[in-house]
Amino acid sequence: MNYLAHLHLGGPGREDRLGSLYGDFVKGSADAWPAGIAAGIRLHRRIDVYTDDHPLVARAKARLPAARRRVAGLLVDVFFDHCLARLWPDYADQPLAGFVADCYRTLLAEPELPPRLARIAPLMARQDWLGSYQDFSVLERVVQGMAQRLSKPELLAGAFAELDAAYAGLVEDFRGFYPQLQAFAAAERAAARRTG
Q: How far apart (Å, rounded) are the C-alpha atoms in residues 16 and 183?
């Protein structure tokens, strides 16, 4: 899953939200961080493993051409964030605009973000990366940006058109998968609270 889903699944608290984002920006043990943030990082990593191993995610990846095998996971993650943003009222009580504004406030108020996140956080908020995913056309720019960060950018050439062609099936996969992921994340958060 991508940023929006991790923030949504991670829990409502400040440290929950920070940890759920830090999972993409820190490597190694989470124990160097405050306990709440460390718990969020660990949850982020468990969500990633659960997602990567899920048959509906495998089905979503298989909807893309075989030539995309190496990058299918990245594309499905981004597409699923689009689905979550577009279908937000089906999965959350708080309106999307309020949720993302709360997330940006939390992020921008944090004085010591991981370095790479500190560099992109102001841009993320200014350009409303989280909310903009509602618009499918935004994914074309996202895919282009991802390609620029790859050592082989040609791996993503034409990928947006392929997402467009597989759109209906990918939405079906998301709708089947996301409630299961929500239940998994809720159970993981509850277990973490019990074990302290």
A: 17
Written as one letter, the residue type at 60 is A
For the beta carbon of residue 167, count every other beta carbon within 10 angstroms.
Answer: 15
Helices (H) and strands (E) in the chain, counts: 11, 0
CA angle, 3 then 121 then 41, to 5°? 45
CA–CA separation, 166 and 138 (whole Å) = 16
List per-residue pLDDT tens for the chain, 196 residues long. Answer: 689 999 999 999 999 999 999 998 999 998 889 999 999 999 999 999 999 999 999 999 999 999 888 899 999 999 999 999 999 999 999 999 999 999 999 999 999 899 999 999 999 999 999 999 999 999 998 888 888 887 777 878 889 999 999 999 999 999 999 999 999 999 999 998 877 6
Separation between Cα atoms, residue 86 and residue 135, nearest integer Å: 8
Separation between Cα atoms, residue 173 and residue 40, nearest integer Å: 26
Judge contact between 60 and 174, C-beta under 8 A. Answer: yes
Identity at 171, one-letter amino acid code: V
User: What pTM did the predictor assign?
Assistant: 0.93
Q: How far apart are CA 187 and CA 179, in angstroms?
A: 12
Cα 35 to Cα 33: distance, rounded to the nearest angstrom? 6
* Contact predicate 24/3, CB 8 Å: yes
